[in-house]
Amino acid sequence: MSLLRTFPTKGVLARPRRTLADVAVFLGAAALLWLVVRLAHGAAGPWTPATAPSTVSTDPAELPYYAGRSLLRMFLALVASVVFTFVYATAAARLRRAEKVLLPALDILQSVPILGFLSVTITGFIALFPGSELGLECASIFAIFTSQAWNMTFAFYHSLISQPRELDEAARDLRLSRWQRFWRVDVPSGMIPLVWNGMMSFGGGWFFLTASEALSVDNHSYALPGIGAYVAAASDEGALGKVLLAIAVMIVMVVGVNVLFWRPLTAWSERFRIEHSEAAQAPRSLTLDLLRRSRVPALLRRVFGPLVHPIDRAMAGFGLAEHPLRVSPVRRRAGDVVFAAAVLALIAYGLVRMVTFIAGTAGFGEVAHALLLGLITFARVLVLVAVATLVWVPVGAWIGLDPRVSRLAQPVVQVLASFPANFLFPLITAVLVATGISLDWGGILLMSLGAQWYILFNVIAGASAVPNDLREAAANLRLPRKLWWRRLVLPAIFPSYVTGGITAAGGAWNASIVAEVVSYNGLTLTATGLGAYIKDATSAGNAGRILIGVAVMSLYVVGLNRLFWRRLYALAERRFSLS
Fold first, then answer.
1. Tens digits of per-residue pLDDT, 95-154?
2. What CA–CA distance (Å, rounded) separates 42 from 375?
3. Which of 9, 273, 289, 501, CA to CA, is 20 to 30 A from 197?
4. Which of 204, 280, 114 is nearest to 457 (CA)?
5. For residues 348 and 338, what is the distance between their CA atoms, to the nearest angstrom?
6. 10 Å Cβ neighbour count for 166?
7. 328 CB contacts (<8 Å, ≥6 apart)?
8. Strand blocks (E) in 88-233
9. How far apart (Å, rounded) are the C-alpha atoms in residues 180 and 212?
């Protein structure tokens, strides 16, 4: 007995540490809940369009509250983006006929700028919640959602279509239902690219925060309390000190979100890596270690774990995750004809309505003008993607393949990508004015600040997902450097690069809206391009020009995706999949 008291068990030694972890997790959850309730309460105040403020106070004391409101909008948009991603990407990957419509629609949705969505939806959201600021809040959250969802959807779709064949066969052999396959196979196998692209999409949401909180639509200006609206107001005042203060607060917030949310999530997602050997140095997170030491997750598992089986039983009605062994060719062909006829009828109806509307408003002379402006912006996008590819593909592969470099570089890259680069626009605008450099050239730099990270993040995710077996085999074979790049690295990261290239190009088109027109201290610089055209039409409330601008931008993006990126997608699926 005395021996047991002298040498207690390992569990007894670990108990005080677990108690401290429990207290920390409980206090953190309580503080988070209080902040959400406090911030959500301010979002439902009385509000009318006639008395709505067109700007926010630039008092630095308001910055913490503004930062909290912006952060709440970002996470609500992220939740909506994850739900959309799961539904849309799964339908596109698993339903043959739906894929023919959903993928082109996703190309179009990605190409529609945020202001294009706002010009259509803001009036509806305000009417949905009359007399309440909640309508404008929903419009802002929806705008942020449109900057996050498409990249995540592309990434998850690609993970589904490039899923290893062994997983598909295991799901069928185990006779999993569609619901079980989704949660047991599809989501885990796509978790790593989903987390990394979610992080990148979150950064894209920061980039468009100013446009989402300081709204100028149909000759009306609205401003919501938020750090994006604060930077817009401070820039209009020419208060460079307040802009720098907002940047400092933004850095603190971005670092905090990465430490408390994204870093634990990336470390946790490593458990879903598909390979036979473990990495030499797995990513770690102090926040995740704290959660693992706490008994709170185990308690939640005991509470909600018994619900898993009843939910599986209830969802079994969706059927098994398998294709029928034989389908009647006549029946399949008839279904394809009916489906194609319905889709073509809807497209024809939409085109007729669009042509009629343009003819009655702006006229078709504007279409040629918009096409020419689109060609100029298209040239900027091509330069951006080419330079970003040359710079960030080697860097991303270096970070993703070397665990030691990854541990040091990933947090830095996360912060850089998450930081809203348009907060730096006032500083860069001041430099352009001082040096006399035209925004026609400077706009490429401004666009790259928001779009280049898509390529870097996808390449890092692709390189980090390369199985350790292949890396060890390449090391054992002592491959020369050029052969190592040509036979291992470039084929391994190619599918991820294609996803990054598509989303970077789409992000660059969207970024042109805020990069081709910049303001500082009452001075506005405008570049020649389609982004400036759409922004001017949206501010003036010219519905005909808005429709023309959005249609032309969609035409360029969809055309590039169909003629170039989709062919690379097919090549990646055919030749470079690990299945």
1. 888 888 888 888 778 767 776 677 677 777 877 888 778 888 888 888 889 888 888 898
2. 44
3. 289
4. 204
5. 15
6. 10
7. none
8. 214-217, 220-223
9. 37
- For the chain, the maximum distance between any two Cα atoms, rounded to a whole number of angstroms, is 96
Distance separating alpha carbons of residues 251 and 72, to the nearest angstrom: 16
Q: Are 163 and 171 in contact (CB under 8 A)?
A: no
* Residues forming beta bridges with residue 253, ordered by sequence position: none
**Whole-prediction pTM value?**
0.77
Cα end-to-end distance, the chain, whole Å = 58
Q: What tokens appear for 191 in the block?
A: 């978790």
Residue in the block written with tokens 């709440």: 72
Dihedral sign for Cα atoms in the order 177, 178, 184, 186: positive
Q: Please name which of 3, 474, 53, 63 lies closest in space to residue 239, comparing C-alpha atoms.
A: 63
Q: Look at the alpha carbons of 201, 203, 208, 213 in this order and tell me if their dihedral is positive or negative.
A: positive
Q: Please state the rounded mean pLDDT for residues 307-329.
A: 74
For residues 59, 118, 83, 157, the Cα torsion angle rounded to the nearest 10 degrees is: -120
CB 548 within 8 A of CB 358: yes
- Cα 550 from Cα 358, distance rounded (Å): 12
Structure-derived torsion over alpha carbons of residues 374, 375, 377, 380, reported in degrees to the nearest 10: 160
Closest CA to 279 of 71, 116, 467: 467
CA distance 450 to 424: 11
| Crossing angle of helices 134-161 and 63-94, rounded to 10° | 40
Q: Is residue 303 helix, strand or coil?
A: helix
- The residue written with tokens 């995750």 in the block is 321
Amino acid at 338: V
The helix/strand/coil state of 132 is strand
